[in-house]
Specification:
Elements lengths: L14 H6 L2 H14 L5 H11 L6 H13 L4 H25 L3 E2 L2 E2 L1 H5 L1 H20 L4 H24 L7 H26 L4 H25 L5 H4 L5 H4 L5 H9 L2 H13 L5 H10 L2 H19 L7 H15 L3
Antiparallel strand pairs: 1-2
Helix pairs in contact: 2-5, 3-7, 4-5, 4-9, 4-17, 5-7, 5-9, 8-9, 9-10, 10-16, 10-17, 13-14, 13-15, 13-16, 14-15, 16-17
């Protein structure tokens, strides 16, 4: 039994107990992923297994499975789409690391650091193609329509983020637009697809879509906050990566807006230069302006909105697990 309150709290969430609710289904999804990763092109197998087997919470497939169980039973199409969601997510990671020139992913060398950019991009393309090949098997045009719009939105989000790089004039609204398209949309699609395959009514489908969207926003906000408060071992990437890439994330946007002239200039210059060298000085400004606390408050509001959206579901352990994941999204340290 997983107990939660109606809004994010300070109590620790047992993530393993949530995972256990879908352990059998998750194992079936993992088997399907390994089966679909099989290729006679050796490099595809190597990189695919490396990135998919390289840790990760499998959060997005879990969301789909929990939502499906909250609506009844998990069928074969749910399992297929959970694998599809993970393939799409993994493809975006491969492409992200190339665009961002990242050397670390989940505490290990990124695929592009091991095999190079070209191989990482092409295997990411393979995973995208495989995902669409798998979703066709559901023989459901609504599913394909949702997934095609999702991948388009993710690509748009990536381009918008690229346009914002090294631009300290990026507004909070523009930043939120990027994370809505780039990150939150796949959370929303996972929970929406559970409703579509389960033939739930429009109220439930829309409620689950809102839940996933708000959860994704909360998740990304905390990711951005952790870049200035976690340690690299916990986070699984180098601290200051966002700064080094010139990304104007919410902590930096807030610090510019609420710091004095000197403090604002420190952050503005660091974003324009896209260098980790100024990380310590930027960190002090972020800390002094309470930018982390502001970012966390925004994440708390998004998590509360996610929980509110679950009113469309009947009470069950699975609904409570979805609520608990909203709490987890804002309490995690990595």
């Amino acid at each position: 039994m997983i107990a939660t309150d109606s809004a994010p709290t300070s109590g620790a969430i047992d993530f393993d107990s949530i995972k256990n609710l879908t352990s059998e289904e998750s194992q079936a999804v993992d088997r399907l992923i390994l089966q679909e990763l099989s290729s006679d092109v050796v490099l595809i197998n190597q990189i695919g297994h490396y990135i998919i087997g390289n840790g990760g919470k499998r959060l997005r497939p879990m969301l789909l499975l929990l939502a499906a169980k909250a609506l009844g039973e998990v069928g074969d199409h749910h399992l297929t789409l959970a694998a599809v969601i993970e393939f799409i997510h993994t493809a975006t990671l491969l492409h992200d690391d190339v665009v961002d020139e990242s050397a670390m992913r989940r505490g290990k060398e990124s695929a592009n650091a091991v095999w190079g950019n070209a191989a990482s991009v092409l295997v990411g393309d393979y995973l995208y193609s495989s995902a669409f090949e798998m979703m066709v098997r559901t023989n459901n045009m609504r599913v394909m329509d949702i997934m095609s719009k999702t991948t388009t939105a993710i690509a748009e989000g990536e381009v918008l983020q690229l346009l914002n790089c090294n631009n300290p004039e990026t507004s909070e609204a523009k930043y939120l637009e990027v994370i809505a398209r780039k990150t939150a949309i796949l959370f929303s699609t996972a929970t929406r697809l559970a409703a579509v395959v389960s033939a739930a009514d429009a109220v439930v489908e829309n409620g689950l879509a809102v839940y996933g969207q708000q959860l994704g926003v909360a998740f990304q906000l905390i990711d951005d906050a952790l870049d200035y408060k976690a340690n690299s071992e916990e986070l699984g990437k180098n601290l200051g990566d966002d700064l080094a890439e010139g990304k104007p994330t919410l902590p930096l946007i807030y610090a510019i807006q609420h710091g004095d002239e000197r403090q604002a200039k420190v952050v503005v210059d660091a974003i324009r230069q896209g260098s980790r060298d100024a990380f310590n000085e930027v960190y002090e400004v972020v800390k002094a302006t309470n930018a982390i606390e502001y970012t966390e408050r925004c994440a708390d509001r998004a998590a509360a909105a996610a929980i509110e959206a679950l009113q469309c579901l009947p009470d069950s352990d699975y609904k409570r697990a979805l609520e608990a994941l909203a709490h987890f999204s804002v309490q995690r340290s990595h």
